[in-house]
Amino acid sequence: MDVLLRLKRFDPERDADPHWEEYTVQADPSDRVLDLLHQVKWYQDGTLTFRRSCAHGVCGSDAMLINGRNRLACEYLVKDAGTEISVEPIRGSQVIKDLLVDLDGFWEKYRSVMPYLVNDEVPADGKERRQSPEERERFDDTSKCILCGACTTACPSFWSNPDFVGPAAIVNAHRFIFDSRDQAGEERLQIMADADGVWRCRTIFNCVEACPRGINITRAILEVTAEVEKAQGA
Amino acid sequence: MFGYRISWAQLAWFGHRLSGIGVLVYLFMHIVENATLAFGPDVYDFTQTLFRNLPIRLGEILLMAALVYHSLNGLRVIVMDFWPATTAWYRPLTYGVIIATIAAMIPLGLIMIAPYAPWGRIL
User: What interface predicted TM-score (ipTM) does this complex get?
Assistant: First the structure.
């Protein structure tokens, strides 16, 4: 079948503004949108620029705004997308070229929540820090994040205020705040309590709808908010 | 926001903002309307006559809808704030708020429009 692919393209060296370009590509219903982008890049226009790495929904590098919603190009199938597919770069970040955006700000916010286990004590048995299945379950959902940025760049609060730390960073703070082995919870809660922290969430659920891993992000944000309030004695 | 597919939950948030602003604008108008009492009964009575007509009544029905929706959706947000686990049902909760608002506005709208409707006298 033929698929009409509409791509929002932008070359900073040639274009003043982004513009739409159309390509017709041959596809099977089981093809992924990423396969169509490959077809364009490999056989029609080698200048098309986009980010992708594993191409199997694990690395999270090909989040794009496809048919009006953030998704992973490597997970969205033609049979679900239809025969007319539009692809734009994710919003809220500067476009470097075509579908490729500058994610430096995104990573900076991710780093700001200290997304690593902090524990300087020697484990009781000298070998490992034990955790019960229930303690592990507490942050199971947020441990699924692949840092694709689909949630943060789908969030209207982030669009209107790029300083908002964003759903992805909060999800990764949640991952460690509720980890029984971690000792930097208070520090993370202080970061979350910032004016541009958890308070910016307006429970719009765009993040939840966009997450390719099916994480209940709003729940994680509200749980972190409740912890922040507890820590502040509210 | 434009160009991004609008979900019901996003629409619910937008409606919450819009109804909130609408009710706030009415509140200011209401304060001005009541403040005319300070200029004597004649001025106040005259102001009241300006508010007794069909277009204003239709506006009041919209105001009632805004109040009902804003209250119900506000309760939905509060419930999710206090019990984050309820976010798992955000879709049915959102639909519930919209359906409840419509269900409440059918009798309320009929009662409010009655004085201006031909069948109004039977109510």
Answer: 0.86
